[in-house]
Design a protein that fits this description.
The chain is of the alpha/beta class and 318 residues long. It has 7 helices and 19 strands. The strands form 5 sheets. Strands 1, 2, 3, 4, 5, 6 and 19 form a 7-stranded mixed sheet that branches. The protein has a 5-stranded parallel sheet with strand order 8-15-9-10-11. A 3-stranded antiparallel sheet has the order 12-13-14, with no helix packed on it. The structure holds NADP nicotinamide-adenine-dinucleotide phosphate. The site of NADP nicotinamide-adenine-dinucleotide phosphate (NAP) has 19 residues, from α5.
């Protein structure tokens, strides 16, 4: 072990990158660890229209990847050290925290957990086998594969309805399958979807099985009111269709299970992003919070980093 950082941030989504920006500006010796690409969920978001000061406007639609690229550059500008690795274990008790990766263990006086959340699967037979073969969790990544085909979107929240609208750029028809008879999505998003003549709705319905021999070609849909099941087949000429799943998220919190307080697998913090363990903070979608947006994740990251700075300076930790 060659050094003890002031701070290790785990996760380079909007929360982690903003924590890095604030920690770097505060001259904290900071290591930011990310196992995949920067940005987390927004790296694969086609359009960000509600980030204050974002560049989306009448002439330009800003993607999540563009926004993240600016956040990454800004974080690097303030001298945050970067590591591309997967964290395998953490030791959070005691004054010095240890963060293990396959090759090395890193030490710090404080840790900010910003590991975000993942798409929730339907959990039905056939889903795992047909993922990438008709089943997808990312319209931006896979929408173009469904040019002129039929596509079904599972879910009724903001994400499902927005992604359904995006998919109409490619698909011949997009059907939203929702388990109730009313969308959860906010009014402004609903209105746009209802006005889009390529979008249809399958109300009070859930997908109970996905079928296909190497490619998705049928599914079983259950009526949530009557319990009746029916099989939906691909159009004969197409031979396949797409199912995009947007039914919420699962927090990436397994590594911290039993180490910090959680509720429904989300980490509980106070308003300064402190967990119940001194020197351990959480920010963004991993946290128990009433709103999971880029702007709230960024705010969490800023608060967490400034609290670390304050706690180190005042001798509360370290
Ligand atoms: P969400 O709001 O939690 O919606 C999840 C949807 O999936 C709900 O319609 C839910 O049905 C349905 N669902 C959940 N489990 C299901 C299951 N097992 N089978 C079938 N359906 C299931 O998730 P989200 O849409 O991803 O949004 C997450 C957060 O991000 C929200 O706060 C949202 O406002 C925000 N967001 C905002 C924007 C924007 O402002 N532009 C865009 C995207 C996301 P019920 O309605 O019956 O519960």
């Amino acid at each position: 072990m060659d050094k003890v950082y002031d701070l290790i941030i785990i996760g380079a989504g909007p929360a982690g990158l903003t924590a890095g920006l604030y920690a770097g500006r505060s001259r904290l010796d900071t290591l930011l660890i990310e196992r995949g690409q920067d940005g987390g969920q927004i790296a694969i978001t086609d359009e960000i229209e509600n980030f204050p000061g974002g560049l989306s406007g009448p002439d330009h639609i800003e993607s999540g990847a563009e926004l993240v690229a600016r956040m990454t550059a800004q974080c690097a500008h303030f001298g945050v050290e970067r590591l591309s690795a997967s964290v395998s274990k953490v030791e959070l008790e005691g004054t010095i925290k240890r963060v293990h990766t396959r090759d090395k263990t890193y030490e710090a006086k404080a840790v900010i957990i910003a590991t975000g959340a993942l798409s929730r699967p339907i959990g039905c037979p056939g889903e795992a086998e047909l993922t990438g073969k008709g089943v997808s969790y990312c319209a931006t990544c896979d929408g173009a594969f469904f040019e002129e085909l039929e596509v079904y979107v599972v879910g009724g929240g903001d994400t499902a309805v927005e992604e359904a609208m995006y998919l109409t750029k490619f698909a011949r028809k997009v059907t939203i399958i929702h388990r109730r008879d009313e969308l959860r999505a906010v009014q402004s998003i609903r209105e746009r979807a209802f006005a889009n003549d390529k979008i249809e709705f399958m109300w009070n319905s859930v997908v109970t099985a996905l079928h296909g021999d190497g490619i998705l070609s049928a599914m079983t849909v259950k009526d949530t009111k009557t319990g009746e099941e029916r099989r939906v087949e691909a159009d004969e000429d197409d031979g396949m269709f797409g199912v995009f799943v947007f039914i919420g998220y699962l927090p990436n919190s397994q590594l911290f299970s039993g180490l910090v307080d959680m509720e429904y697998d989300y980490i509980v913090t106070d308003e300064a992003m402190r967990t119940n363990v001194p020197g351990v903070y959480a920010a963004g979608d991993i946290r128990k919070t009433p709103l999971r947006q880029v702007v709230t994740a960024c705010a969490d990251g800023a608060i967490a980093a400034m609290q670390v700075e304050h706690d180190l300076a005042s001798g509360v930790i370290g």
